[in-house]
Amino acid sequence: GENVEQHPSTLSVQEGDSAVIKCTYSDSASNYFPWYKQELGKRPQLIIDIRSNVGEKKDQRIAVTLNKTAKHFSLHITETQPEDSAVYFCAAFRDDKIIFGKGTRLHILP
Amino acid sequence: NAGVMQNPRHLVRRRGQEARLRCSPMKGHSHVYWYRQLPEEGLKFMVYLQKENIIDESGMPKERFSAEFPKEGPSILRIQQVVRGDSAAYFCASLGGQGAYEQYFGPGTRLTVT
Questions:
Q1: Residue-wise pLDDT tens digits, B21-37
Q2: Among the ranges given (A1-5, A82-86, B48-52, B55-59), the one the predictor scored with the smallest mean pLDDT
Q3: Do B45 and A46 touch (CB under 8 A)?
Q4: Alpha helices in chain A (DSSP H)
Q5: Could you give the CA distance from residue A1 to residue A13 in angstroms, rounded to a whole number?
Q6: Which of A81, A101, B33, B110 would be A90's cystine partner, CB 3.0–4.6 Å?
Q7: CB-based burial of residue A2 (10 Å sphere; 0-12 exposed, 13-18 middle, 19+ buried)?
Q8: Is the distance from CB of B76 to CB of B68 less than 8 angstroms?
Q9: Residue B108 to residue A36: CA distance in whole angstroms
């Protein structure tokens, strides 16, 4: 079955700097890769996603890149702000089943 | 995603009691996923259901746990004879249907077993 690895588990960046979170997946048939943000005590919220026929997608300060050959995808947050502090989960989706990475706790330092 | 409803939001049960968690998907969504999240951990897939059908229950423990999604009414995750290790947040997410990809999560039920 699918296995999703996510790194790093914790990331601290200075406010205004960029943050990058990386994930790898094992099943080459996975075809959809969402990213979720979860604030403390709240539900995961979909922030951006990418399908396997696309290499990059951007939405304001957030971008996701996908390398199908290497089976890895990354989340990039530019100009980080305090409200970006949260846990971020990547996921890989195939055949109606979605497997999540273990999450990255992002701290934005003042 | 505000349309996915879960209740109760918090549930306290003593060991050995039963817990019933309910999830109403977004309007027009006919597919529901249940996940368990332990403190400081990720989301673990439990079960995927369509109306009146269990599609994939490979993530659900074989004993004490069951799930249903009847033709009318919410999806229910039922945990019998709860133990302390069942304490977790349980999230459901709904999906528009086969061919749809985006999952939207409910607010979760936080189960505490005392």
A1: 999 999 888 899 999 99
A2: A1-5
A3: no
A4: none
A5: 34
A6: A101
A7: middle
A8: yes
A9: 15
Cα separation, A34 vs A92, in Å, equals: 7
Determine whether the interchain pair A43/B33 forms a contact, defined as Cβ–Cβ distance below 8 Å.
Answer: no
* DSSP conformational letter for A82: G
The DSSP annotation for B3-38 comes to T-EEE-SEEEE-TT--EEEEEEPPTT--EEEEEEE-
pLDDT value at A73 more than 80: yes
Nearest-neighbour CA in chain A from B105: distance (Å): 6
Q: Does A45 touch chain B (CB under 8 A)?
A: yes
Q: Is the peptide bond before A8 cis (omega within 30 degrees of 0)?
A: yes
Residue type, A62: I
Q: Is residue A36 within 8 Å of residue A88, measured between CB atoms?
A: yes
Gap between the Cα atoms of A52 and A77, Å rounded: 21
